[in-house]
Write a structure and sequence with these properties.
Layout lengths: L1 H25 L4 H26 L11 H28 L12 H27 L1 H11 L4
Helix pairs in contact: 1-2, 2-3, 2-4, 3-4
């Protein structure tokens, strides 16, 4: 997942580079390239977030596979994040005046993305807490085996 996230981020940066390159030459960029860049950025963000959530839930660290409810929650969050992220980007570039709102995250669609990221942060911390509590014996055995200095 990390490889794909990095690759999609590079594609996003490439489209941003096309927009800003045209902007630096003529003073007016290609808005379509910036929208495409932001959409690729949403996909890269969700892949990074999924990787962190799966690791926090213990996937491939202490558990071979996640529970069914865990997978369902991840699928619901991913779908919601992608739909809301793309909707927020399209709303920002379609319905809001760019001259009035200078920064994406200072608008209502940007705040929506920030709220979804905060939810992901709390979910990450909660998953780490539950995983450490659930697999406490494995954590103790790991730390005793690998960090014992005597």
């Amino acid at each position: 997942m990390a490889f794909w996230s990095i690759l999609i981020s590079l594609v996003s940066m490439f489209f941003s580079l096309l927009h800003f390159g045209k902007y630096s030459i003529g003073g007016k960029g290609q808005q379509d390239m910036l929208v495409i860049s932001r959409i690729f950025s949403v996909f890269a963000d969700i892949l990074s977030t999924l990787l962190l959530i799966c690791l926090a839930k213990g996937w491939t660290v202490v558990a071979a596979k996640l529970s069914i409810m865990g997978r369902v929650k991840i699928a619901i969050y991913s779908t919601t994040y992608i739909a809301v992220g793309i909707g927020a980007i399209l709303t920002f570039y379609t319905f809001l005046e760019q001259e009035v709102v200078a920064f994406f995250y200072s608008s209502a669609p940007g705040v929506t993305i920030i709220i979804l990221r905060i939810v992901a942060c709390f979910w990450f911390y909660y998953s780490v807490h539950i995983t450490r509590r659930k697999f406490n014996t494995k954590v103790r055995g790991f730390s005793a085996r690998h960090y014992d200095t005597s």
